[in-house]
């Protein structure tokens, strides 16, 4: 039996990369999906078509997650279309947008009767930058730490209402965005050095999100799930700098 048959998932930033991978993994298991995008309409429509080919329904919705009114309108439109939101995945990269998405998802889920074991599942996509103080990434590192603590706080607040809130910390994932920052040579060399011997792919995160969004994770809330192919544990200390006279 498909774990999300008859359920609806809303995924922000679902037109490309990790968000698209999550949307497709949920659809493979029976979910109807709200495909949110900000600026890649063609890619969002393509993702929606793949969802339909998998047998699900898809609603494509343009909204900038930093615009609270736009996100509120998206949730209303999704509920008007599907009746409820069972899974909300806050994937889009803008940090304050995570707050809007999670809070509005929780408000909607609190109105809903339980379906299965819970009223709803919220999954936040963060980063191993939350754990590792990468140089020259102070603002980004800090924002991911804040996102994760928000999720822990919400998990504590919503446990009694049977709404699960969990986080995924992806490692280095092969997405179109990575090629804006790294050359193909950099990516090939970096992949070779990773403990798992390859970069992650969006499906790796999608499968993890599907677990956390399912009844299989009924007793899991406030958890940070690292999906990094051993990246963190494979770190080594730099060589000691030579002493100067």
UniProtKB/TrEMBL annotation:
<dbReference type="InterPro" id="IPR020904">
    <property type="entry name" value="Sc_DH/Rdtase_CS"/>
</dbReference>
<protein>
    <submittedName>
        <fullName>Glucose 1-dehydrogenase</fullName>
    </submittedName>
</protein>
<dbReference type="GO" id="GO:0016491">
    <property type="term" value="F:oxidoreductase activity"/>
</dbReference>
<dbReference type="InterPro" id="IPR002347">
    <property type="entry name" value="SDR_fam"/>
</dbReference>
<comment type="similarity">
    <text>Belongs to the short-chain dehydrogenases/reductases (SDR) family.</text>
</comment>
<keyword id="KW-0560">Oxidoreductase</keyword>
<dbReference type="Pfam" id="PF00106">
    <property type="entry name" value="adh_short"/>
</dbReference>
<dbReference type="InterPro" id="IPR036291">
    <property type="entry name" value="NAD(P)-bd_dom_sf"/>
</dbReference>
């Amino acid at each position: 039996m498909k774990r999300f048959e008859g359920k609806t998932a809303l995924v922000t930033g679902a037109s490309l990369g990790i968000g698209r991978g999550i949307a497709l993994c949920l659809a493979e298991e029976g979910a109807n999906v709200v495909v949110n995008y900000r600026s890649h309409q063609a890619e969002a429509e393509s993702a929606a078509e793949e969802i339909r080919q998998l047998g699900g329904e898809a609603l494509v919705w343009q909204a900038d997650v930093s615009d609270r009114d736009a996100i509120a309108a998206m949730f209303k439109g999704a509920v008007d279309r599907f009746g409820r939101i069972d899974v909300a995945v806050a994937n889009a990269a803008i940090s304050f947008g995570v707050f809007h998405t999670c809070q509005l998802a929780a408000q909607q889920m609190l109105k809903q009767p339980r379906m299965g074991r819970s009223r709803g599942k919220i999954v936040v996509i963060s980063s191993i930058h939350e754990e590792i103080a990468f140089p020259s990434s102070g603002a980004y590192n800090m924002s991911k730490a804040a996102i994760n603590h928000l999720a822990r706080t919400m998990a504590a607040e919503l446990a009694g209402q049977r709404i699960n809130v969990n986080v995924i910390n992806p490692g280095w994932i092969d997405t179109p965005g990575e090629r804006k920052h790294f050359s193909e040579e950099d990516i090939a060399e970096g992949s070779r050095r990773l403990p798992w011997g390859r970069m992650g792919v969006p499906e790796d995160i999608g499968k993890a999100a599907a677990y956390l969004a399912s009844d299989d994770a009924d007793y899991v809330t406030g958890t940070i799930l690292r999906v990094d192919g051993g990246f963190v544990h494979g770190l080594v200390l730099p060589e000691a700098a030579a002493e100067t006279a």
